[in-house]
Amino acid sequence: MRTPSFGAGRAVAPHDVVYVSLLCEDGEHTPAEHAAPDSAVGVDRGVAVAAATSDGDLFDRTFRTPKEHERERRLRRKLSRQRKGSNNRARTRAALSRLTGRVRARRADFAARTAHTLCAKNAVVVLERLNTTNMTASARGTADAPGRNVRQKAGLNRAILAQGWQGFKLACQNAARRTGTRVIEVDPAYTSQTCHPCGEVDPRSRESQASFRCTSCGHTAHADVNAAQNTLSRGWTSSLSG
Ligand SMILES: [Zn+2]
Q: Which residues are catalytic?
């Protein structure tokens, strides 16, 4: 199926220019129009990879290597045994903060690069509006996927939180100021269990973290890419309704 295009954007969103100029508060130049005005992309901040797009691009990287993970665990254990106020404890704390700082910098770098790539290519970037409470609730089986693999989902939720999607959104908004991109957020409910081509909603279609197979039409796709395509459609709908 053809993904709805934002080509009709001229007609449906005459307020574009106003929106963009409001963001231009630091004197940085924001183009009145994006270089590719008809382009749009949906982004799923997924579980199998850090970010997947409706174009089928997967963005991912390791923020903390297994070795660093182990070292952090050791340092934390050591810290808990050391006497408060001692020099040794201060040294351990410093080592720990160097380690977490490195991981944080990597994450920020990933967010900035991915955001820049997406905004340079697209006039509209549609993101899922995620919030911590909903994601934690879905682990207990109340929201997106009722009650399946509860423990596994709890782990996944932690992983998503750790990947810092809030930072990614800010990076997109920041990159958008230089490219004239519009960043839209949409409700992500059921995007991961809806078949993009046929619209069937079934939690069983999501076979695993990475694979989607529609129980109705048999369509198969990378699960996060399928979700990103639904996110894009939703952004199109929400921009039509203003
Ligand atoms: Zn289907």
A: 44, 128, 224
Give a yes or no: residue 77 inside a domain: no
Q: How far is the CA of 8 from the centre of ligand 1 (A)?
A: 27
Residue 121 near residue 36 (C-beta atoms within 8 A):
yes
CB atoms within 10 A of CB 207: 12
Mean pLDDT of 118-139: 75
**Ligand 1 centroid to residue 79 C-alpha, Å:** 52
Entry pTM:
0.73
Q: What distance in angstroms lies between residue 9's CA and the mean position of ligand 1's atoms?
A: 28
Domain assignment present for 103: no
The count of structural domains within the chain is 1
Residue type at position 227: A
CA angle 71, 159, 117 (to 5 degrees): 100
Residues 75 and 95 sit within 8 Å (Cβ to Cβ): yes
What's the rounded Cα separation, in Å, for the pair 236 and 200? 19
d(CA 55, ligand 1 centre) in Å:
18
Tens-digit pLDDT profile for residues 163-183: 578 888 999 999 999 999 999
Query: What residues make up the domain containing 161?
Result: 6-60+111-240
